[in-house]
Amino acid sequence: MPHPMETLQIEHKRIRRLLDLLEEQTVVIEEAGEPDYELIKEILDYFLIYPDLCHHPRENLVLEKLRARAPDAAREVGALDAEHEGLSRQFHDFSHAVMNLMLEVEVPREALVRLARAFVDDERRHMEEEERVFFPAALRHLTDEDWDDIGTRSTRFKDPLSPTQSGIRFAELRRIMAL
Question: Closest Cα to residue 179, out of 54, 20, 26?
Answer without folding.
Answer: 20
